[in-house]
Design goal:
CATH class of one domain: Alpha Beta
Structural class: alpha/beta
Order of helices and strands: HEHHEHEHHEEEHEEHEEHEEHEHHHEEE
Oligomer: single chain
CATH superfamily of one domain: NAD(P)-binding Rossmann-like Domain
Number of helices: 13
Shape: globular
């Protein structure tokens, strides 16, 4: 995000505690694409863009640190990506659940109070998640809906039905930001983001940074790798593409380059003071089975031999559900999808293939063992593995012990524990 904003003329500062690297290491994983040291990334950034961003390597939950950064930067916009973005990580045990809640909520509260005291005219663009809504048996509006009850009508926040401690921390964040706008007169855009995928964050491949030190990370472990990340990595190393349960969970997706476009549109078009608005950010919806079939089809066309198999779902989520969310606000601001999913998947596979050995060395992190009941047990395969290609998994009877089926990990923060502050 810092690169994307800088390339468009913004002056960027930021804060990053480096927690994402620690979290992934804790899960036994690592980025499929090598990630340079912070200092090497800053040097490469300066070489590519002619300026060195002001980066504070510290913690958003430290209020004094946040206030000092605001005093130095005096931001006009705050892009808040600095939260732990993993449902499984938050479900491991009480310590992880409490830590995720405290980290995410306290960091956002510090940003809100720093805005009130030091940058009251700034615009907060906070990364939420479509997972806040859950899967209600209703169409999902953008944040608010009109309701009539006992003869009276009102416009109210759409009810949230989060499915993990992480998702509930995001719900609490949304409530806190909405309340801060009301009482402090702040302005904020809450971006309910779908699953972001891809390795190239500029719309044109020609604009993609040549220096590998500037490339984005791509995680594939059970806690921080999205379903599509895992499917692509599994295709590269010849592991089966693993569906949680029947794979009928439907979610919204968009490529990382379009996520950058959407966040920048939000930054460049702030709301009025006191206004809290919600954007649902995704491009298309797919079931996890459809997603796996797309990856398998593209991978097969590249000479790979992907198979699709079902595994026990460690989550407590609905398998069959209605899912029809709105996403009109960003389109009204000028959002234009730039890449189709098939071409983006092909680009991902092209970028991942040179790192086959790196991915294969961590293949054990691809199967989940974090279960929503608090236990740890590796998910078993539910089929015989006797046929699954681009057309989808072979039919198989569920195990009698099969838990409720749910989604593969569907949230991927662009820059965990980082909050760029933009002045344009």
């Amino acid at each position: 995000m810092a690169q994307y904003l800088t390339a468009r003329g913004h002056e960027v500062s930021g804060i990053d505690a480096g927690f994402r690297r620690e979290w992934v290491a804790e899960m036994g994983g690592r980025s499929a694409l090598p990630v340079a040291s912070v200092e090497a990334r800053l040097d490469a950034f300066e070489s590519a863009y002619g300026r060195r961003p002001h980066l504070v390597q510290d913690d958003l939950t430290d209020r004094d640190v946040v206030y000092r950064l605001f005093e130095d930067a005096r931001p006009e916009a705050i892009v808040h990506l600095g939260e732990c973005p993993s449902a499984p990580y938050s479900m491991m045990d009480a310590d992880h659940a409490i830590w995720v809640q405290r980290n995410n909520i306290e960091g956002t509260m510090n940003v809100l109070y720093a805005m009130r005291d030091l940058a009251p005219g700034a615009h907060l663009v906070k990364l939420g998640t479509m997972g806040e809504y859950g899967t209600p048996d209703l169409d999902i509006p953008e944040g608010f809906f009109e309701i009539e009850y006992r003869g009276r009508r009102d416009r109210l926040p759409f009810p949230r039905q989060a499915g993990s401690w992480y998702h509930w921390s995001k719900v609490h964040d949304s409530n806190n930001v909405m309340f801060a706008c009301r009482i402090f007169g702040l302005r904020a855009t809450d971006v309910m983001q779908g699953v972001v995928y891809g390795t190239r964050f500029f719309g044109s491949s020609a604009d993609h940074p040549a220096d590998p030190a500037l490339h984005t990370r791509l995680d594939f472990d059970q806690a921080f790798g999205t379903a599509l990340n895992r499917f692509c990595c599994q295709s590269v190393i010849g592991e089966p593409l693993t569906l949680f349960g029947l794979g009928n969970q439907r979610r919204g997706f968009l490529p990382i380059c379009d996520s950058m476009q959407c966040l920048t549109l939000a930054v460049d078009n702030p709301p009025e003071a006191g206004d809290y608005r919600v954007f649902n950010q995704f491009e298309e919806t797919y079931t996890i089975s459809e997603l796996a079939a797309k990856v398998a089809a593209v991978a097969s066309g590249m000479g790979l031999d992907p198979q699709i198999r079902r595994i026990e779902n460690p989550r407590k989520e609905m398998e069959e559900h209605h899912y029809n969310p709105d996403h009109d606000h960003l389109l009204a601001l000028g959002y234009q999808p730039t890449r189709d999913m098939d071409s983006e998947i092909r680009a991902m596979l092209e970028d991942l293939l040179p790192h086959h050995d790196r991915i294969a060395a961590s293949r054990e992190v691809l199967l989940p063992d974090i279960r929503w009941d608090g236990s740890r047990r590796r998910s078993a395969f539910l089929d015989a593995g006797n046929g699954a290609g681009p057309d989808g998994p072979a039919a198989a009877k569920p195990s009698v012990d099969e838990p409720d089926a749910g989604a593969a990990d569907v949230d991927h923060a662009i820059g965990a524990k980082a909050a760029p502050l933009a002045r344009g």
